[in-house]
Fold:
Amino acid sequence: MLKTGWRIKEYILVVFLGMVMILSAFSGVFVTLNEYLTLPIKGLLLLVGILLTIASLRGMLTFFLTNTKLRTFSMKDLRSQILKQKHLIRGPKVVVVGGGTGLSVLLRGLKKLTSNITAIVTVADDGGGSGILREDLGMLPPGDIRSCILALSDMEPTMEKLLNYRFEEGNLKGQSFGNLFIASMNAITGNFGKAVKEMSSILAVTGQVLPVSLENITLYGKLENGMVIKGESDIPLKSLEHQSPIQRVFIKPKYSKPLREALRAIEEADVVVLGPGSLYTSIIPNLLVERVSKEIKNTRAAKVYIPNIMTQPGETDGYSVFDHVQGLFNHHPNLQLDWVIANNSDSLPVKVKEKYEMEGAELISITEDDRKKLEALNIKIIEQDLVDIRKDYVRHNNLELSRLILSCAYENKGARWFNRWRSKKRLQKLL
Structure:
């Protein structure tokens, strides 16, 4: 039996072979061999040709429309997958801007509700394996890009483990196989943007993952004590070391060109999401790239900000929900937000709470003061218990968060998506 893991070209080849066998059985396509095709042989060719054609077509449909983990095939499964794909294709155009773990977590939820997703990812990362490749090969950091591609791809668990695998010994110690994959594609194509597209194509990514810029951007941070720090990874460390909060961040070159596809995605979006992710080192660096914040301001899409659930040591110590929003406006006074989606759970399991307290992090609770200040800025706030704890790590409940984001798209009646989806019932089918 044909396996669903086969590539489409192989399916087409087998279908072609089956059709040739069927035609040979009826009319002897190969005239020179026709005299040797006795009735039993023709019957066998016909049977084998039909079986190959049916099996290949079935495998091709399964490859396109069903989960790769599905081991059985039925018309019920096929109908279900067709309806699912239909809803996903008609879903709103969601653009998510950020980086780090928060972004990839959200993408895993969004792809279950819409296939029209664009992740615009920061390229200011200079730590870990990404920083080593950036320094050694002169390429843009692949780490956050890799995480987003894996989050939006549909692959077997073994392949995902392979791409996430980090070498433990030798010169490659600490380096992930996925980062090396992108580095190899970058060398082959000679362009980081093309390398990301090629990897996305190979891994059948839902939507697209885009670096915010193809320029070699360096992030700087200025602390309240006046110290200026170079490098994304050093900013929170120095802030903690000198016990001085971050006043602002900036990039060099100051006028970095954005990726054209990223600007187009924002312009055509139904909802633009900032976060979740590190405020100063994942979200704001994207907005500092030329024209990005302006494009977000001018788009008709709903504009949503999602603060982290926990504070980040050296970056957002003691921050409230409004402090996060104020951090955005301090860098971009003209930035417009329509919604803030915040977690309103005020408790964590004791073991998890103690773990984060040891690291200097605490739960971000929304206060009445936050609500009043956001209301004064004409920003709507959506409050919900969004805590999802896995292996003692606090994350957003990505599916519930994704539903709330799509609801914002529906409420934004000026967006293109609302004009395509005029019935709330149709939205409920998707959600």
Remarks:
- The chain has 20 helices and twelve strands.
